[in-house]
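PROTEIN DATA CARD
Card holder: non-specific serine/threonine protein kinase
Chain length: 432
Origin: Durio zibethinus
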Amino acid sequence: MGNCFGTQVDHHSQCPTKPSSPEETKKLQDSKQNGLPPARNNESAGDHGTSREGRSREQETVPASGKIVSATLKIFTLAELKASTRNFRPDTVLGEGGFGRVFKGWVDEKTYAPSKVGVGMAVAVKKSSPDSSQGLQEWQAEVKFLGKFCHPNLVKLLGYCWEENQFLLVYEYMQKGSLENHLFRTGGAEPLTWETRLKIAIGAAQGLAFLHTSEKSVIYRDFKASNILLDGAYNAKLSDFGLAKLGPINGNSHVTTRVVGTYGYAAPEYVATGHLYVKSDVYGFGVVLLEMLTGLRALDTNRPSREHNLVEWAKHSLTEKRKLKKIMDRRLVEQYPLKAALQAGELIVKCLESDPKNRPSMEEVLETLQKISAINEKPKESKASTSQQKSKRQEEQQCHRNNHRSPVHSRHGGAGTGTRNTQRSSIARSHR
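Structure generated from the sequence above:
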């Protein structure tokens, strides 16, 4: 993913805002030893009490498909980010979430210093909302995880700012916006083809698989279409790690935590008990994959009452050809291999298993998606296309018949019916 680091993190010297309590002060002092913002409490993305201070990050395992890097992010000043976003002007807003608004800014490609619009490199600046109760905790989790991991399918964090009680994060800019925009918002975003949807699903699966198989597995906890961002070539990257949490350790199957996330995507066992499994993410992936097949939101009270919850309404139609065709996104105009769609439906059913033990791992999900992508069965033609091709074939057949008869007519000088019939009989015998 290119350069994942800027200047060395040093909160003690760069953050004029003082912690609000002695406990926060101690966290801030301890943070100097590991180059991160103060650690969150046990309800956050902490290490379950396990100290990292005696271990260098450069000694972490480096997976083949990604890497673990030292958290050397640029510390931006608030003045720099105001300059890069033209003082957070409303016309620079890219989107808004629970954490706050995201603005488009411009910085120098090498120094990350503010630059004029259209000059240098575009960036996305996430600015915390004063009304966000989770602002500080989510900000810390983002810096902790995205500052540590570098992978083609995770959005790149360039730096951060903590000043005047405001928390800001600076990311690479993703030209195509979120998957949510392409699936659900009318006007603007063009409909995604079957091939592009599979490409996005595979990219997102690669990102989740990387998190799950890192030395200390990371549970993303908020997998949904709005958190999947797309670059100019529709490569998918996971964003928003504010709710991410380290997975279970010491042989435990799960971690217990308060329930956060987005209803409709959260796994049932997590919602019911607060028990969070690595495979809780797999359930969320299944929901998003179902949205990609149908073009419908996971929850939508504007639909008929029995269709409010997409999973409950559609899951029984995913493995039968006739039923599946009825719920497929109409914007695909039937331009997809039905065999591949059926296999995708079967995969969704496995991901949505009520018991997390019965769900596939993200590595298995990724392998299945790659096999589905390899299915190159000719897509069924749309009705309009089929009608045009049928008309063209009829014209070609008529032309062929006319060309076939013309030598006979010219040879016999326009002879009568009997002569033509005799000639046809002769041709028929010659072919026998």
